[in-house]
Amino acid sequence: MNLGNRNELDGEDMKIKVDVITLHAVQNYGSVLQALATQKLLERHGCEVRIINYIRENVKYENLLETRSNGNFLKKIILYPNIKRWKKVFEGFCNEYLNLTEKSYTTDQEFEEYPLEADIFCTGSDQVWNSKWNLGIILPLYLSFVPADRFKFALAASFGQEKLSQEEIEATQKYIDEYNFISVREKSGKKIIEEQYKYSHAEHVIDPTLTLTGDEWRAFANNKKETKNYILIYNLNRSKEFDDYARKLSKKTGLKLVRLCNRYDQFYRPGKSIIIPEIIDFIKLIDNAKYVLTDSFHATAFSMNMNTEPICIYPNEFGGRIESFLQLTNSMQR
Fold first, then answer.
1. CB neighbour burial string for 155-192, b if at least 16 within 10 angstroms, e if fewer
2. For 145-159, what is the mean pLDDT?
3. Cβ contacts of residue 157 below 8 Å, gap of 6+?
4. How many CB atoms within 10 Å of residue 126?
């Protein structure tokens, strides 16, 4: 498919239609912001972008209570207010800022009826190809529903792992082979594509959130940078060692701790709790902090982008995402 002469043939106002599938429908600040950044990046290049409203079965709001509680009645009571707030914050943001398809899709059968009206189909960024994070291989994230003769590309896709099993390679090989172009977010992802899948070439690129400048994110959040005397904690993986380090850092620097909590029951942990803030406040809190203490890839990326000093602690799993970014930016001292 030759797209290079499209404007010459159809007129300069004709935009290329791109449908993107990614992990936007989750309760995670970085995930929804990378989806927005992907949309904006493609729009800047003259594309008409549509985000496929793909929602995993276990993260649907009507299923979250059972998914997160594993049937435990006490956990259900604790989780219920979180789910109400998550729906308002995360789903509300996606509905307002993302160009979502009118229909949502979950199962392979539903994707069989997906309207193939776009010129190009894209697997977006974030941990789309991380079978551990996704609790299994999700073939629509490999564009399995798109015929082999359509133009497909991956934009900053992530495996979140250093190496895949041979079984996973065999289950997904045919879909990887159908991509016209693949870019990945981590150095390890490039190695997986080229050495395990034997795909000819993969580009190692930055996360889409970094294609917008700090000032652009600042303008989006309507924030004027004003560095304040606090350490922002954004900790996705509960850890006593992490909390102990935060207390020591606060004592050493004389700065107060502010914790961005993504659950109500995290209020008791060190620092002043800001519980499930709006997505825009995630940007503001990072922008105005003196330091950001985190085990989150996107909190690290936003900190660097907005000239706030990150202090990174690798999580037990999927820490390679942060390490790859720090290597890429020559910032391993972080």
1. bbbbbbbeebeeebeebbeebbebbeebbbbbebbbbb
2. 97
3. 123, 124, 125, 128, 129, 182, 183, 184, 185, 189
4. 30
Tell me which of 157-161, 197-201, 251-255 is least confident: 157-161
CA distance 301 to 317: 18
Q: Which amino acid is at 235?
A: N
Q: How many residues does the chain have?
A: 334
| Partners of 21 in beta bridges | 123
Helix (H/G/I), strand (E/B), else coil: 116 = coil
The amino acid at residue 205 is V
Rounded distance between C-alpha atoms, residue 326 and residue 215, angstroms: 21
Kindly give, in sequence order, each residue whose CB lies less than 8 Å from that of residue 120, ignoring residues fewer than 6 positions away: 3, 16, 17, 18, 19, 47, 150, 151, 152, 153
| Residue type (1 letter), 240 | K
How many CB atoms lie under 10 A from the CB of residue 247?
Answer: 12
* Cα 308 to Cα 55: distance, rounded to the nearest angstrom: 33
The CB density around residue 248, as the number of other CB atoms within 10 Å, is: 10
Which distant-in-sequence residues (6+ apart) come within 8 Å of 159 by Cβ? 127, 129, 130, 184, 186, 188, 189, 192
Closest CA to 52 of 144, 190, 130: 144
pTM across the whole model: 0.90
Neighbours of 308 (CB within 10 A): 21
Tokens 């069989």 locate to: 112
For 20-77, write each residue's pLDDT tens digit.
Answer: 999 999 999 999 999 999 999 999 999 999 999 999 998 999 988 888 888 888 888 9
Asked if residues 306 and 282 have their Cβ atoms less than 8 Å apart, the reply is no
